[in-house]
Design goal:
This protein is of the alpha/beta class. It is about 35% helix and about 15% strand. It has helices at about 20-35, 35-40, 50-60, 60-65, 70, 85-95, 100-105, 135-140, 210-220, 225-245; strands spanning about 10-15, 45, 110-115, 120-125, 150-155, 155-160, 175-180, 200, 205. Strands 1, 2, 3, 4, 5, 6 and 7 form a seven-stranded mixed sheet that branches. A two-stranded antiparallel ribbon has the order 8-9. Strand 8 and strand 9 form a beta hairpin. One of its GO terms (biological process) is triglyceride catabolic process.
């Protein structure tokens, strides 16, 4: 998927759990070296924690979200402590940083992937009437792990969008830049060595190797904060390599 400045691609951030720090690193790199990709993308999609990164791009809260790695150092495991309600922590972060006009910024541009609880159907929300309607919490809710009662949106219960579509995409004909912290077939992802077999997770093909297994474990319950910080730097580096490979070799200074 080549990046063409005149025809900006849409961007899709996959389900990632706490490995969303990788996607934050990618976002920071694009902001530094190819900001037009973020500013002009017609559709910014996200599933699970990837929807938080998508919202950071669309709702202009990149600075707060991209400082996440530094903020983690202030905690003693913080949200990763098993005694902490992860869902409540996410709720506090969103209410603090999402601007009051988030729905106006998000309408028709932010696409949040969710899974309808009643039938497991994949639903994508792109129209929002208020700040509260920016239904990111629904996209990040993992039953039991985040609590027992899932959030509702307009009276309908939803859970993590990654259950039904790990890498949400817009209409098939629209060029889309895909970002994932797991190695596989996405445009920007870790560059692992070739392996003998692949695995398909919610419609997305991932490499079936030990490195991805560790990433999945850390996405659900990080072994240490250094792992998540390293994922941030890996995402930044992988994004630089992607830009160089696709001919974006100069640093944007405008």
């Amino acid at each position: 998927c080549a990046v063409v400045q005149e025809i900006p691609p849409s961007i899709s951030f996959s389900g990632s759990g706490f490995m969303a720090t990788y996607q934050l690193g990618v976002s920071q790199c694009l902001l530094n070296y190819a900001p037009w990709i973020l500013r002009t993308a017609p559709c910014v999609l996200g599933a699970s924690a990837g929807s938080l990164v998508a919202a950071a791009v669309v709702c202009t809260i990149r600075d707060e979200m991209l400082n996440f790695v530094k903020q983690m150092k202030a905690f003693t495991l913080g949200p990763f402590n098993p005694s902490i309600n992860v869902f409540h922590w996410l709720e506090c972060i969103l209410h603090k940083h999402v601007p009051s006009d988030a729905h106006q910024l998000a309408n028709g541009r932010l696409f949040v992937s969710m899974t309808r609880l009643s039938d497991g159907k994949h639903i994508v929300m792109s129209e929002f009437q208020s700040k509260e309607d920016v239904a990111l919490l629904c996209s990040c809710f993992v039953p039991v792990y985040c609590g027992m009662l899932p959030p509702s949106f307009k009276g309908v219960y939803y859970v993590d969008g990654g259950f039904s579509s790990m890498q949400p995409l817009p209409v098939p004909c629209m060029q889309t830049l895909t970002v994932s912290p797991f190695s596989g077939e996405t445009d920007i992802c870790p560059a692992d060595k070739p392996c003998m077999w692949d695995m398909v997770v919610s419609g997305t093909t991932l490499k079936g190797n030990m490195a991805n297994s560790f990433r999945i474990i850390n996405a659900l319950y990080p072994m240490n904060l250094e792992t998540l910080e390293q994922a941030y730097h890996s995402g930044y580096t992988d994004a630089i390599n992607f830009l160089l490979y696709n001919g974006e070799s100069t640093v944007y200074t405008g």
